[in-house]
């Protein structure tokens, strides 16, 4: 979905064929986008696994750790200076989110594995922090447009994701089709997630991950 949106925007702004020519002339630069694309794929897989092990409230609270990991990587990679007061504000934000999360409504009969779930979430938060800062570095240190970068990101994710999904659930896909059980709610979530990802990219391009 994100790739389709990017293609449409590129078509009405820079033009498809001129953009394709530009990508061909800058193939090595495009390879850099593979790093955050693969990280985001692993991160999403970890988050799905975490949701299978944790109740929703615990998951949401634990995943806010990405606020701190993003700040940490902005210091390590972008060499940004974060004051003690800003660190305190981020920590306070993390604590505040923890307090406002509603109690979970998950069925207690479902098996939970909190320890494993927290490991998944912590790993996902670390990957999220690194990928966000790395992608910000790509956006701000290149003449390539935001839409081309997101098109590269979506293309790599789509190709690798399809291969991985086919390998993992090939028999089910052959039997029921790839979009089996995709109802209107699933498509709505996909649309919102895609639009949200592009909005985040705009914020990162013209501001930074900390403001995001």
Automatic annotation (TrEMBL):
Residues 1-18 form the signal peptide. Its main location: membrane. It is a multi-pass membrane protein. GO terms for cellular component: Golgi membrane. Keywords: Membrane, Signal, Sugar transport, Transmembrane, Transmembrane helix, Transport. GO terms for molecular function: pyrimidine nucleotide-sugar transmembrane transporter activity. InterPro entries: EmrE-like (IPR037185), Nuc_sug_transpt (IPR007271). It is found in: Membrane. The chain crosses the membrane at residues 85-104, 116-139, 146-164, 184-204. PANTHER family: NUCLEOTIDE-SUGAR TRANSMEMBRANE TRANSPORTER. Belongs to the nucleotide-sugar transporter family. SLC35A subfamily. This is UDP-galactose transporter. It comes from Echinostoma caproni.
